[in-house]
């Protein structure tokens, strides 16, 4: 059974047991444009106890540098090396796990966040935000990129592309005709929330390409895939037995933490409720739950 964090002693126990705190962002730190109570104080408290703090988001359209600005707007101090987006997770995967040679290029169907992160680990990417592809596919043009694939492309990455079109999809598919070229997804979320709307997520771009190419992605680098946890552990050299994943979703955040060998803390400020928590089998319940992240700070006062 999950233990509810409701006393000062329980907070002290959590502070004793864990050195690294991984956080989902939306629904944990903020809800849309609204910062949740005592979040800044809790993060400051953890840092003052020497805890490592890592932020884990499935949004691949932004780079870590873009996220630093978002955090600043909320008054949260974070450095780019504390932020793990699926764009960065994908770049680390290509570099550390796929071990793609640095003279190879990556074809990207997705946003500039992916390209920025690939560049930081030393890969040239093509496609992505290149405006060349923001038009109709012209099969009568002998110069069209669809007839001139770059032989240096050694991997294909697909994430959320808000300008996805037939031209880009067709070129992506041509690269995947080569079975030697790995197909990676940044994440496979079917939707993402924005200003009260549910919008098509990265998974819809991935499925378009999977359907056309007849191939499934080798991996999806975002939560809850263990490859993202492997990449975090590798980049930050964390001890899984002394780390805890904090999130508001059972099927991504809590699954990600549990299957990655971490303790888990579910906060009830986002998707889940006590009812959805109680419907879970005991062996997959989070280690802890609390009404909100800020309770860690408030209970200690
Ligand atoms: Mg969330």
UniProtKB/TrEMBL annotation:
GO terms for molecular function: alkaline phosphatase activity; metal ion binding; phosphoglycolate phosphatase activity. It is an enzyme of class 3 (hydrolase). InterPro entries: HAD-like_sf, HAD-SF_hydro_IIA, HAD_sf, PGP_euk. It holds the Pfam family Hydrolase_like. Gene3D superfamilies: HAD superfamily/HAD-like. Its EC number is 3.1.3.41. Its cofactor is Mg(2+). Keywords: Hydrolase, Magnesium, Metal-binding. One of its GO terms (cellular component) is cytoplasm. Substrate binds at residue 223. It catalyses: 4-nitrophenyl phosphate + H2O = 4-nitrophenol + phosphate + H(+). The active site is at residues 24, 26. Divalent metal ions. Mg(2+) is the most effective. Mg(2+) binds at residues 24, 26, 248. PANTHER family: 4-NITROPHENYLPHOSPHATASE-RELATED, HALOACID DEHALOGENASE-LIKE HYDROLASE DOMAIN-CONTAINING PROTEIN 2. This is 4-nitrophenylphosphatase.
